[in-house]
Amino acid sequence: MEIFLQQLVNGLVVGSVYALVALGYTMVYGILGLINFAHGDLVMVGAMSALQTMLFLMGVTPGMSPLAMLTLSLAVAIPVCMMLGYTMERLAYRRLRNAPRLAPLITAIGMSFLLQTIAMMLWGRNYHTFPQLVSTAPMQPVAGVFVTPIQVTIIVGSALIMAALIVLVTKTKLGRAMRATAENHRVAALMGVDTNLIIALTFVIGAALAAVAGVMYASNYGIAHYGMGFMPGLKAFTAAVLGGIGNLGGAMLGGVVLGLVESFGAGYIEHMTFGFLNSSYQDIFAFIILGLVLIFRPTGLLGERVSDRA
Amino acid sequence: MKRSVVALAVMGLGLSLAHAQEMAVRLGSVAPLTGTISHLGKDNENGARLAIEDANAKGVTIAGKKVRFELLGEDDQADPRTGTTVAQRLVDADVKGVIGHLNSGTTIPASRIYNQAGVPMVSPSATNPTLTRQGYPGVFRTIANDVQQGGMLGKFIVGSLGAKTVAIIDDRTAYGQGLADETDKAVKAAGGKVVAREFTTDKATDFNAILTKIRGVKPDAIFFGGMDAQAGPMLRQLKQLGIDAKFVTGDGGCSPEMIKLAGDAINASAYCSMPGLAIDKMPGGPEFRNRYKARFNTDVQIYSPYAYDAATAIIRAMQAADSAEPSKYLPALKKSNFQGVIGTVAFDDKGDIKEGAVTMYQYKNGAWSPM
């Protein structure tokens, strides 16, 4: 039981980060039908620019409180990623909006390589230690389950951000414009929606989420590296497809489900298959679930609107 | 005007004459220069580069011609498939010898391509025993293999640490798995019990799931076969999950980077093994470390001394045979016997380095200190 609960916590932490990143994929897909493969690398840029800010602050004001430092570094990382998201959309994707779908897709992969290479030139190949401003020392275990303050921060933080995003999309005028643009650009434009602006904003919001996810991810594992965005990006993309790409609730559900499946998969796969499969198959476990969902619900767990887009 | 044209022509003639007397010899260096262990890959390339720059500065003459060595660095991304592609590219570029690759998983498939092309290769860091047991005449390594290292690790974990129960994790690469298997055997041979065998990948950063599972069986020691990029975060997560078993890893985790990545989670119950001697105990170690730092403005990670000696072995063999042709200098490479940075460089009949020592290290005061 103790092990089960610990795996539940492990899965929730990873799943929350996946969910935050998956939202960026799904929002862009919902509105443009584009899979922005460079989104995972925005996670890296978020973590790296936060790291740079922290190192700067530590040099200038050594005695600064961790909370203030975290806030300030987020205040740098988020706008940096937002600007980058906007720039990508403006320079690369907007010109290709009416091109065949393969063109923006390949451009997105190119963007991903470009960001990684620039980051490698800026920050080098070495791993960087990411300051642990929120403690990663385990708190008093409850029922044998060890939880660290950063893990609590990640779960609560992502839940709050996701709730705010839902409110933004469903209750505000901007959200209505986003939904209208997603349904049909031309009609939305005829109704007086500035679709260029709305699409750019979608990228910008997704990038902000990626920045937060990057800082959370790096704080939890204590490391940052120019290639760190690749794996969470890939997993988050999987989560977005699992939940139903284009659907906000689906991305959140998909992220959490994927995190839990990975965690329980690694923990129990050996018992479940009587020792036939072991933890080296933990990723396969996640993809089996994905495969099954896509066979029986091709639009993903919650995806419905997607069918008329694809 | 006219005079200057003549002067130019004369200068040009002079240049081309100088060029004709100099012979360029290309050597290849392959290591992952991008991806999770690119810091180690660059370290290998730097080691080989330093050896080549030294040879060029000293001036090497082969068959009466002054030789200028050129290093062709390739990136195999630690990926076996990319490894064979770049191996073919080096062969096509007519390299006369290869220093590399870094990982066992890339070196073994690539060695087949070099063998077909008749290009000798010396790996500074691939430790999987299979590499030198394929019957390829031109395959060498300057580092001890995993049979030696795993045997030492097993004895150390059970004998010196007194661990009765051991959990073993590996990253499913040819290196990690090979070393974990050898350690597994040696732990059992020494009377210890392997209570868990778990797996991860060489790209993972989250190990909470498998560590939670390991916590359930309460081992005295945990051994990880893999690289520092995983070992560091793994150690942190052990602490976060409240596991206080001894942590032991192989040469892949025996780097300064590992200590940096583990942060405050690392303490005196972390150990690692390294084939060969500690850099301070290597005959040319301290000098090499200083020169390396001065040239590349970064610290030696793990294998650059081995890469330096690998390149030196090839260059010396070419001098001894008075030829840069692989078929001519290969016999001389087999008979290598010189004092390198790491100690005596000489190969046995399989191509493994003779007397490959293994040293155990313990974490102490911010560094790995030899035991």
TrEMBL record, chain A:
Q: Where are the annotated coiled coils located? A: none
Stretches that traverse the bilayer: 12-35, 67-86, 102-123, 143-169, 196-217, 237-261, 273-296
For membrane topology, the record states: Multi-pass membrane protein
What keywords were assigned to this record?
Answer: Amino-acid transport, Cell inner membrane, Cell membrane, Membrane, Transmembrane, Transmembrane helix, Transport
Among its keywords, does the record have Repeat?
A: no
Q: Where in the cell is it found?
A: Cell membrane
Say which family it is in: Belongs to the binding-protein-dependent transport system permease family. LivHM subfamily.
Name of the protein in its database record: Branched-chain amino acid ABC transporter permease
TrEMBL record, chain B:
InterPro entries linked = Leu-bd, Peripla_BP_I
Sequence ranges assigned to domain Leucine-binding protein in this UniProt record:
25-366
Stretch forming the signal peptide: 1-20
Q: Name one Pfam family in it.
A: Peripla_BP_6
- For whether the record's keyword set contains Signal, the answer is yes
SUPFAM superfamilies associated with the record: Periplasmic binding protein-like I
Does the keyword Glycosyltransferase feature in the UniProt annotation? no
What keywords is this UniProt entry annotated with? Signal
Q: Which residues form a coiled coil?
A: none
Regarding protein family, the annotation reads: Belongs to the leucine-binding protein family.
Q: What is this protein called?
A: ABC transporter substrate-binding protein
Report the source organism.
Aromatoleum anaerobium
